[in-house]
Amino acid sequence: MESVSIVRASGYDYDELKKAVCELLEPLGGINAFVSSGEKVLLKPNMLSGKSPEKAVTTHPVLVQIVSELARDAGGRVVIGDSPGIGGFLSVAEKCGFYEAARKSGAALAEFKDGVELKGGGIFKSIRVARNYYEADKIINLPKLKTHEMMTLTCAVKNLFGAVIGAEKAGWHLKAGTSKSLFARLLLEIYLLKKPALNIVDAIVAMEGDGPSSGTPIKRGILIAGANAVAVDVIAARVAGIPGTLLPIEREAASLGLSGAVIEEINMLGESIQNIPAMSFKLPKGMDVQFGLPPLVTRIMKSHLTSYPAADHSICILCGICRDACPPVAIKIRNSALSVDKSRCIRCWCCRELCPHNAMGIKSGRLLRVLKKLSGKSSV
Predict the structure, then answer these.
(1) pLDDT in tens, 297-315
(2) Hey, what CATH class is 295-375 in?
(3) How far apart are CA 65 and CA 18, in angstroms?
């Protein structure tokens, strides 16, 4: 059985949070069970973009600082690294608070920019990841618990997609992003290439709604930790009140028979999940529909039954970031306006994820709008 620990944490006050992190790790053997003296330890937070910690887009810097200090005290040589979705690495690190976290804890900062090609053991025969990710002796994964318009939820497994270098992410979205199950398989194969030694989830203030960047911060007040990223994700989903049927990563992990994918086989430590007040996160409005129909029928139906990105021209400043990041090149700027080619759009939502102005909205297909009106629901 895989073990997952949960503790309550009221906020990001340094002293209180450090006590909570130590309590979280104690039933797992403490930090020394994961870090040995002399090891190069890479901390992999969520570093999506240069947002302030209060936005709940990125891992809180106080948690990053505390884990860095604990790993350092265990004898580790600590590096904080990632590949932001938008913006320069140092600029994003400063805005997120990671620059200060590194300074206070004595850690180094490392941008993921030099890659190493690895042979995959599944569908994807070759996957390139950051060299400083692959060559680390130990990885401590520090995801933020957020909803996600493509994967429903982003947590431990999804956070490792950051090991793919910068612009190469768009290529993988184009290659695997047309199917949620296929993209989930890609994420799991990246995870299996080099598993983190430890995963610690920042779910003190999480995100619901149109995550991972345009959602609403929501106080959940807990930390989750475990050595198995799949098991951590399963528990994190239950904490968010999201069933496994809506989680492509969990479904794919179960189909592959991966350890940690079955909740009954997870050993819960620390705070009992039954004692944590129930909560159901609001789901993203842009969640796609997977029909399992013949390709031609699917293409026809999806244009009417799914949502797609559409610019809010009153907010959009035509910066071109969404256009440049779009994997299938479905976004154009014509006649001083931004437009989306629905026939090319794969609903990966990279445009909404990376827009710094929250100017990319969601528009439903015609039939979907009718169904929403008839059902009285705000989202499907």
Answers:
(1) 555 555 555 678 889 999 9
(2) alpha beta
(3) 10
In angstroms, how far is the first alpha carbon of the chain from the final one? 35
pLDDT (tens digit, 9 = 90+) per residue, 262-275? Answer: 999 999 999 998 89
Tell me what percent of the residues of the chain surpass a pLDDT of 70.
90
CATH entry, 2-275, from 3.40.50.11440, 3.40.1550.10, 3.40.50.300, 3.40.50.10470: 3.40.50.11440
Q: Where in the chain is the domain with CATH 3.40.50.11440?
A: 2-275
Residues in Cβ contact with 204 at an 8 Å cutoff, skipping those fewer than 6 apart: 9, 10, 11, 12, 17, 60, 63, 219, 220, 221, 222, 223
Question: Taking the model in full, what pTM does it have?
Answer: 0.89
What number is the average pLDDT over the span 100-114? 97
Residue 159 is which amino acid? N
Give the residue range(s) of CATH 3.30.70.20 domains in the chain: 295-375
